[in-house]
Amino acid sequence: MARITAGVATSHVPAIGAALDNGKAGEDYWKPVFAGYDASKAWIAAEKPDVVILVYNDHASAFSLELIPTFAIGCADAFAPADEGWGPRPVPVVQGHPELAWHLAETLILDEFDMTIVNRMDVDHGLTVPLSLLFGQPDAWPCKVIPLAVNVVQYPPPTGRRCLNLGKAIRRAVESFPDDLNVQIWGTGGMSHQLQGPRAGLINREFDNAFLDRLIDDPEGQAAVPHIDYVREAGSEAIELVMWLVMRGALDPEVRVAHRFYHVPASNTAVGHLVLENVGSLAAG
Amino acid sequence: MADNAFKDIPGTTLFDSQQSRMGFHLNQFCMSLMKAPNREAFKADERAYLDRWPMTPAQKQSVLDRDWNDMLALGGNIYFTSKIAATDGLSFRQIAATMSGVNEPEYAQMMLDGGRSIEGNRSKMETR
Q1: B69: helix, coil or strand?
Q2: Torsion of CA A230, A236, A238, A239, to 10 degrees
Q3: If we measure between CA atoms, which residue out of A190, A156, A155, A147 comes closest to residue A61?
Q4: Complex ipTM above 0.90?
Q5: Which end of chain B is more exposed for a tag (fewer CB within 10 A), N or C?
Q6: A284 CB neighbour count, 10 Å cutoff
Q7: 3-class secondary-structure state, position A95
């Protein structure tokens, strides 16, 4: 059967993608950001996931205000990088896993998580920057990717509790897929940042690190934190952090922390990154 | 509409149903700038391009003035209005500096120094 072996959390700052695409990754400003992912690159090269379920948010690229799905799952064969206003990122086309994606959609809906099924969608920096951070600049991404887009642009996003429970349901769905697949789940976005208005540039290091601690050790407690706390304490765009709870919900109650990284700043944003392993999967070898 | 607790957060506009309804056409105009030919048409004659959209005069003026905070107040969402910035060749950091009332080097330095502090920025009730 398919198994979720590990979870990855990371910010998906567009400027990180731009730095990489424009050959600026070696500059003093960016070096510490990319260095924070060196251990994870080595880790994932050894882990060789077959499929990544990549939880992210679209930033008015695939979804305008015409249609705002709370949870959308990409079931297509492939997903092209979006033109976000300055041309698409020069990164490989993302290859989907339609069989598993459709299985997830069917299973989740019957499990009472009403997913929106997407058969055609471009993917923006929210999805491609995490791939770049973990895989660098290959000619083709080394695994299949199932995009799972969460609305965090139009208030209200789903609650933290709903996100954690969706993660649990995703795990059940993956484990009922007959093929032997090594599946990872990634949660992206955050950490503290505010991109709009006079309070732009807000960073809350204390909030971010408490979130990382609690996501690891007390996800049920973190799931109860209301939206207002994220927005007030960590900035209007920090609400993206609820997506990390989808990832966490799909893992064991107790996980092994393979890597943890935190850095300020990347453009307007605090960068956070976790690699979490299911202890059960390690034992199963 | 979101509860009033969000309105107590200084310098922050929550993109709730009220803002979304007010800003629908402004944001859909911004969305059109995802396509290169539309970016060219907008750059060639901004006023004429804006007049294709059923936006209010104040919304159109906020775009012509590149008054980023006004756009937000009139229902714009930052992920949409930032497409105007991209069309202008401006980075997110440049417009963030403008929205917070400083120049870009000052803003960049603030970020290097750890970002805008949460202290004094949680609530409009706080004295600064």
Answers
A1: helix
A2: 70
A3: A147
A4: yes
A5: C
A6: 9
A7: strand
> Scanning every residue of chain B, which has its alpha carbon at the shortest distance from the alpha carbon of A87?
B36
Q: Do B112 and A265 touch (CB under 8 A)?
A: yes
How far apart are alpha carbons A212 and A222 in whole angstroms?
Answer: 10
A9 beta partners:
A187, A274
Residues of B in contact with A59 (CB under 8 A): 79
pLDDT at A181: 98
Whether residue A199 and residue B121 make contact (CB cut-off 8 A), yes or no, is: yes
Sequence ranges of the domains in chain B: 14-89, 91-128
Using the Cβ of B105 and the Cβ atoms of chain A, whether some distance falls under 8 Å is answered with: no
Two tokens at A35? 């260095």
Strand A51-56 and strand A269-278: pairing? unpaired
Alpha carbon separation from A12 to A140, A193, A269 (Å, rounded): 20, 12, 9
CB of A15 within 8 Å of a chain B CB? The answer is yes
Tell me how far apart the alpha carbons of residues B28 and B6 are, in angstroms, rounded to a whole number. Answer: 25
CA dist., res. A179 & res. A53, Å (int): 16
Both structure tokens of A41 = 């690159």
Report the distance separating Cα A129 and Cα A166, nearest Å: 23
Q: How far is CA A48 from CA A6, A41, A43, A66, A182, in A?
A: 11, 11, 9, 38, 8
CATH class of the structural domain B14-89: mainly alpha
**Contact in structure between A54 and A187 (CB atoms under 8 Å):** no
> How large is the angle between the packed helices B36-44 and B78-88, nearest 10 degrees?
70
Cross-chain Cβ contact A199/B100 below 8 Å: yes
**What's the rounded Cα separation, in Å, for the pair B12 and A185?**
32
Q: What is the pTM of this model?
A: 0.97
Splitting chain B (128 residues) into consecutive groups of 10 residues, what average pLDDT does each group show?
86 97 98 94 98 98 98 98 94 94 97 97 83
- Give the whole-angstrom CA distance, residue B85 versus residue B75: 17
A125 is catalytic: yes
The pLDDT score that the predictor gives to residue A285 is 45
